[in-house]
Amino acid sequence: MSSPAPGGASLRPPLPAVLAALLAVLSALAPGLFFLVAFAFSEGRPSGQEWLVLLVPLALSLGLLVGAVLLVLGRSWLVVTVPAALLGLGIIGGTLFGGWAEGAAGFGLATGLLPALSAVLASLPRVRGWVAARRASG
To answer: Which residue of 50, 56, 58, 73 sits 20 to 30 Å from the alpha carbon of 31, by its own alpha carbon?
Structure first.
C-alpha cells in the first residue's frame, strides 16, 4: 500500500494513471515515426504546408510524452488526455471513415485504440482525484 504524503495525498499514482502513462508513451511512437519519415522525405527542407504535416505529429508526440511525465508526477491528467484523445480519434476516424489503412484496418484500429485507451484511463475519476490531491498537497 502506498504511504500518504504529509498533505494526505498518496505518493504513488493509481494503476490506471500508470497504465495511461505507459500507453501514452507507446502511442507517441506512431506520430514520432511519422514525423521522422515525413521529414526524411522532405530532405530536411520542408516548405509551405509540409511544415503543418510535420508539426502536428511532432506536437502530438511531445504532448503525449510530456503528459505522461506530468501524469505520473501527479501534476496534470489533462495534458496527456487531450493529445491522446485527438490522436486516437484521428486514427480511428481516419481508418473507419477515410480509408487510411486499406488492407491494414486492423493495424490502424489497434494504433488508434492505444491513445484512446490512454485518454480514457487518464480521465477516470480516481486518476483526476489523485492528481487534484497531489496538486493540493504541494
So the answer is: 73
HEC per residue, 1-45: CCCECCCCCECCCCHHHHHHHHHHHHHHHHHHHHHHHHHHHCCCC
Q: 1 falls in which pLDDT band (50, 70, 90)? A: very low
| 83 alpha carbon, distance to own chain's centre | 5
Q: How far apart are CA 70 and CA 89, in angstroms?
A: 22
Tell me the mean pLDDT in the region 19-40.
90
**H or E stretch including 47?**
none
Yes or no: say if 61 and 31 are a contact pair by the CB < 8 Å rule: yes
Phi-psi group of 102: left, alpha or beta (phi > 0 → left; psi -120 to 50 → alpha; rest → beta): beta
CA distance 32 to 37: 9
pLDDT of 100 above 70: no
Coil, helix or strand at residue 70: helix
Rg of the chain (C-alpha set): 17
Partners of 6 in beta bridges: none
